[in-house]
Amino acid sequence: MSLLLENVTKQFGDFTAVDDLTLSVGKGTMYGFLGANGAGKTTTFRMILGLLNANEGRITWNGKPISYATSPEIGYLPEERGLYPKMKVEEQLVFLAQLRGMKKPDAKMAMNKWLERMEISHYANKKVEELSKGNQQKIQVIASLMHNPQLLILDEPFSGLDPINVEMLKEAILQFRNDGATIIFSSHRMDHVEELCEQLSIIDKGKQIVSGTLREVKRSFGKQNVRINSDNDLAHLATIAGVISVQKSIEGALYQVESEQVGNDLLTAALKSGPVRHFGIEEPSLQDIFIEKVGKQHA
Amino acid sequence: MREFMIIFKQAFMTKAKTKSFIITTSIMIAAVFLFANMEKIIDTVKSATGGDSDSAEVLQVLDESGVLADRLKMQFESNESDFKVELSDKTEKELTDLVKEGEMDSFVTLALDNKNTIQANYVSMSAMEFNLPMMLQEALQSIQTEMKAEELSLSGEQVQTLLAPIQFEQQSVSPSAKSQEELSQARGLVYVLMFLIYFAVIVYSSMIATEVAAEKSSRVMEILISSVSPVKHMFAKVLGIGSLGLLQMVLLGLAGYIALKTTSSEMTEGLFTYLGFSNMNVGTLVYALIFFLLGYFLFATLAALLGSLVSRTEDVQQIIMPMTLLIVAAFMIAMTGLGNPEMAYVKYASFFPFFAPLVMFLRVGMLELPVWEPLLSIAIMLVTIFILGFFGARVYRGGVLMYGPSRSLKDIKKAIQLGKE
User: Fold this and answer.
1) Has domain B55-155 been given CATH number 3.40.190.10?
2) Which residue from A207, A166, A197 is spatially nearest to A29, judged by alpha carbons?
């Protein structure tokens, strides 16, 4: 595992911002880091970056603690835009890349390549403040990617981008992943996480309440939706053990069940009463899981 | 070290390339040249506008006594004055009307009272006229002296002895004192340099605070300190802006040097003698440079510390207010000390690190101090800078991560706490 957080705890005075967090992200994987506002995501990222020290636990990158010596290997996209408003795009990108250890000519080449790729070459000589929000975000993205980092920390990378640009950025990030980079990113957009991340964790008030691969998380959530459409009377199915609730519709019913197994039981029982026109197990969306898990904690 | 240089360059170049820096510096250099050539310019303007100086201005005189006008004419002629006296044949009322209508600049009525004392009444549109009335007064005064001397049948020699001026000289026995003459010569140079130091320290240290706060508010700080340690960033910033200040000072100094060299013929005259530029003391210049640098680093580290506490540039002025007051206080002490640099409070203030850059410079420029005094003061400042740098770095480390409505000095504690974590 290349990025490893072991039992990390961070306290500010009496306030516990991050509580006993453990996670690991391997090479070539993308890790989704979810949580409501103020859950401790940014604090965690700052600890990974070495800006804050954990009170307890260890954070390592390839077995070593992260320090300024490793900074050229790291790409960081902060949640809020972090650019000099008065500096020209070109100067700014070269400056930031130099800080990440790139030589000036290399930085220029990488910059031109990326500006072209993001289709904003014509802004190279503009001041950042003259650009639209979406284009500023693109600059920010380039700043975090152009030095070819091995560890990418992306805090809300898609905010402020239109769907076309979201696709452009996804493609770029996926390419990094395929090249073997370790990527951890936070987002409020569950659909993005579902689409991109093999692994994820949800934290709430500093505590990790869900973690694992996408499939594990969905499985362990337990609840699944089973839809059965049939012309026969299926009323007796509601009594089968493991059915949490039934929602009748004109063509059949929607059952919320405890596990996939219960779904199979339902199908068997339904087939006994006659032919079934439609049967489907619908996985819970990450959105459902997030709202249920985080919502419950707050309730 | 590599990152240090990158930040240093960036801090220096982005500021040096701004229009505002280039324009202010050009204006200042232009001002230096203008100032150095002031007398030439005034002369040129005079000869251009008052080009008719051979056809001297004519002063209309109404003479009720019948003797004074001729004597005045003679007096003006013997003084080679630019004015000519002309006896008017108009009445006082007619002349007053002429002045009111702007046809005539001024006129004077002369009379003698029963004790043979001259009564003069000078009439002009403006009460702000000084040159002619003054000359007139002087001329009439000497005419009166002559007349009275004749009345008392005194000889010219006797009059001379009566009017002989006394010899008055001021001498100080304090070992550190320069002679009065030296003092007033040093005063001009010290004043100008002190003002430069004051100006540079206040401008550049608040520039640092603003820069830091701007980096925080634009959140670029998070990116910066994730690749460079905050301490490195702070010192690179301070040095970068400091070099900018030094560059500006050097440019100004160079401009001043060239300006004075090119007009050297007039350097011993008028304004320059008054300001003590005629025998420029190299020691004073070196001290000015030292105290500028020390003052800058002292206040710049303080400003960086304070700037790291606020998260919006709007709050910068408020948080650096105490610092600005310190500089202003130092300037006030130095200004009052300019008249009398041997006052006790000036001496004490010159060893207080925040006042020293201006006050010790004043003393060193104006007085013959034993060498240990400026050296001690410099050492005190160096130690303070070191402590501030050390302390500032700790505050800075936490301060740059602090966001929210923080704008009081109490946040220093919070910042140190955060910096440790």
Assistant:
1) yes
2) A197
